[in-house]
Amino acid sequence: MEFGGPLAVPDRPYWGQATSTIDWCEENYVVCKYIAEFWNTSTNLAFFALAIFGMMKVRATRQENRFLFCYIAMLVVGLGSWLFHMTLQYQWQLADELPMVYGTCICIYCALQADVKVGTDIYVALALFGYSAVVTLVYVQIRKPVFHQIAYGLEVAIVLVRSMLHQIEVRKTNARAYSELVHMFWLGVGAFGVSFVLWNIDNIFCTNLRALRAVLPAPLGPLFQLHAYWHIGTALGCYASIVYQQYLRLVKLGTVDRFRIRRLAMVVPYIDRCEKTE
Fold it and tell me: What is the mean pLDDT of residues 40-62?
């Protein structure tokens, strides 16, 4: 394995010729003959680590299973993205993109149902599943990535708007909780925002980035694999969004004073039960 070297694609790629509708800017099969896009693949470890950490914390704080499902969906997205970038095969592209739609619908459900004390609104759940199913059926027919991007972007917008409306309500009743929600909100928005900018730079200036990586010393080349940063940033943004919904739920249930937001490495938020002395 080497970090550099010739940029030629093997005559017979390990996973076969690419069948995906997208081939990203990273040069294929350069670092490892078993992985088409090494850096775009390996950075999905951020999804695995944060999703597993989140699931552990849900269990530790005994919160509702809806949040466990959010983290499971996040884990599935990371796995699908890993397989997609490793192989560049169309079936794994779908395994990356479609779980993003279904998983975000779970977050929408959490945002819409944060005020509901008990029970499950089956109609909301069915409507969100119906949306995801329609997106799936249309997308596999037209195979246009921009359709998926718009469908996913609409879901993210719904989560953002509903979260901001919740924040306005919380601000009137609980200053501490409001402050924590605002910090997590901007962590998620900032992580997604920076990632989106880098994702676009990677797409638009791919030729320039490849030329730059070709002349840089081998250890520095990976620093300009900008799509890889998209995975790290969106993993953090997705994780922060779920923790936000967890904390918001505690506020709405009136039990938030039993919990505190703590931060791993001063960045990654998580919910923990208060010590008796707190």
Answer: 97
Cα dist. 45→11, 89, 97 in Å? 29, 20, 17
pLDDT in tens, 52-64: 999 999 999 999 9
Specify which residues 271 forms β-bridges with: 261
Whole-model pTM over 0.85: yes
Residue count (the chain): 278
Q: How far is CA 100 from the centre of its chain?
A: 8
Q: In a 3-state reduction of DSSP, which class is residue 89?
A: coil
DSSP output for 91-154: HHHHHHHHHHHHHHHHHHHHHHTTT--SS--HHHHHHHHHHHHHHHHHHHHH--HHHHHHHHHH
How many other CB atoms sit within 10 Å of the CB of residue 217? Answer: 8
Written as six digits, the tokens of 12 are 């017979």
**pLDDT tens digit string along 72-106?**
999 999 999 999 999 999 999 999 999 999 999 99
**Helix or strand holding residue 249 (H, E):** helix 226-253
